Amino acid sequence: MPIERSTVEAWLREDLGHHDVTNHVPGETTGRLVAREAGVVAGLEAAAAVFEYLGVAVTDRLADGDAVEPGAVVLSVSGSARDVLRGERAATNVVAHASGVATRTRRAVTAAREVSESVRIAGTRKTTPGLRGVEKRAIAAGGGDTHRLDLSHMVMVKDNHIAELGLEGAIERVRERASFATLIEVEAEDVATAREAALTGADVVLLDNMAPEAVERAVTALADLEDTADTGSRENFGDVITEASGGITLETVREYAATGVDVVSMGSLTHSAPSLDHSFRTG
Question: In the chain, what are the domain boundaries?
Fold first, then answer.
C-alpha cells in the first residue's frame, strides 16, 4: 500500500489552507526530524513522500523499524525554506503517530516472545480513517502482523451472521461466494462454538472476548480434534489457525501468548497507541 499522491495532497491541504502566510520564508535551508523519546521509528516513507511532493530533497533517513533514542535524527531534508517549512508539520505528525504504533507493537511482540516463539501479534481494522496504510506499515515495522488490510482479504463470519443464517449456513454462503484462495474466519465466544466452526469448515477460528484460560481450553480442543478421525461434515480436515482477540492489552498479551494460540490480535496497537514525540529543526 504505497502512499498515494492524493493522500499527501489531502494532508497538506488540511494543514496549509487557502492562504499560508506563515511559511513565506525566502532562501534555502536544511531540516532534521528528531526523536524526543526512545522507541521504534515508523512512517518515514510517508514523511519522505510529503517532502518529495513539495520538491524538497530527502538527503538521509533511518529505516522503519529502527530503534531510536532521544536526539536521534530520523530524517534529513534540503530545499527551499518555504517548502521545507510547509511540509514539516504533516511529516512530523505522521512519523510521531506511526512511531507510536510501531513502538506499542514492538512492546507487545517482546512480551509475547517471552512465552512463545511462534505466536504472531496482529493488528485489526480498528484504524484511523485515511491512515490505515500508514498504521498497518507501522505494525509491520514493530514486528507485528498486519492481519487483513480490508474486507476483501479474508471473510469473517461474526455473531450477527450466525444469528441470521446459523453457523453452517453462514459458512456455506460465504464459501459459495469467496475465491478458493480466500480464508474464512469464524468468530466463537466459547469452546463448543469454536469446535463446531472448525468442523464446519473454518480456516481460522477467532476466540473472541475469552479469558486466557478459556482460550487455552479451546486451543487444546481444536488440537485434539485434528488428531482424531471424527471430523464431522468437514472434508480434508487440516490445521485450523486459532486467533485470540477482544480487549487484549500490553498488560495481558503475555497471558494470551502462553495459551498456545497461533495469533493474538490487538486493536489497541492502533486505537490506543500514544504518539512518539518528535520535533523538526531547520538550519
Answer: 5-111+273-282, 115-271
